[in-house]
Amino acid sequence: MKNRFVLWVLATVFGTMTSWAGTLSLNWSTDKEPVSYRPGETMTFKVQLVEDDKPLAGMVLKWSRTGDDQQTAKGEDTSSETQPVTITTSIGKPGFVHIEVSVFNKDGSPVKDAKNKNLKFEGGAGVEPSKLEGYPEPADFDAFWQTQKGRLTKVPLKASLTEVASKNPNFKVFDVKVDCAGGKPVSGYLSIPKDAKAKSLGGQVSYRGYGVTGADQEFQNGMIVLQINAHGIENGRSPEYYQALRDGELKRYAYNNSQNAKPETCYFNGMMLRVMRALEFVKSRPEWNGKTLVASGGSQGGLQAITAAALDHDVTKCNAFKPWCCDLGGIKLERLRGLRPDYTDGLGYYDTANMGKRIQCETFITAGLGDYICAPSGVAVLFNNVKGPKTIEYMQGSTHGYNPPHPKTQKATCK
Description:
CATH topology of the largest domain: Rossmann fold
Distance between the termini: 29 Å
CATH superfamily of the largest domain: Alpha/Beta hydrolase fold, catalytic domain
Number of helices: 7
Strand content: 25-35%
CATH class of the largest domain: Alpha Beta
Number of strands: 19
Shape: globular
Number of domains: 2
């Protein structure tokens, strides 16, 4: 509805330009809440370039449209002091469209933001995401994971803890290594409030996004927190140590198609064994209250958190922020793929959307409407598959690595 324009102004990217006295930004709106359209219904996007909140004329705005219908479109217009640039599109089936707008000077050079990146908006809108269904899962999915759990039971839950300097004086911190199947140990930092009594604390395992780094220290009052790195490598080492791994054995890990052909040889296999063993370790701590167990992470960490909740039903809450590898086979259904490994039959056993069918606990998920590393269609399929109480929050103007300062969101909740 047109009167929603003021309510849906989305100040997305800000950049102070040396050639301008004020701050340039893009104000955005859609004529409806962006994840509420019907098949074939016209979606109307409006964008206005402003300087210190005053419309600025004479700049070139170039836009592109892609979508889960495989249709594309491009256009450009000139900013005006009186009228926003209007973009209209539609999609005829459940799915999402992705809109990107960039700002250019009159000489054709891109306008830069404060971080010297192109000033632009990335967002979109969706049609009936609750009706999206994923690519079929492997027939022996549950049997495979029972076998993997059996591998874990053959490795005693043996841990070594080395106390390290804490970044928070109210907590003790330990560098932890826990024996695990798969060739690498669980490796992370465990934080425990000082003077914690037996069975007095909830537990949380936090998982990290894609990359090659050690774990970081993480603190929550009333909680044991174990943050693990994704690879079972050392924590707290020099930058050179991690760079050597990035350039060597962990270069483009998880993207090897021949490894991914079979679930037993996927890089994710060892990672998910460590996901489960980390939960087992936290549950073994004398301070754990036996009640609260949280799995949390973003991107690849979201993939791991979803896996944790799917495979260990002691998890009571799962937080997955823009989770990775959702509905990997969606590209076979002509959806935009995002940035992720090529689909193989082996990867189907690690697909976040398939894991979602096994989740019974409270789950909170976020999706960026401009995020095409973890495309919103795949995240929607994951949300649809979760069996327990769940909430998804779609964020307009949000890409994988960026959230607007005050993002406009649209939520869906099922109890």
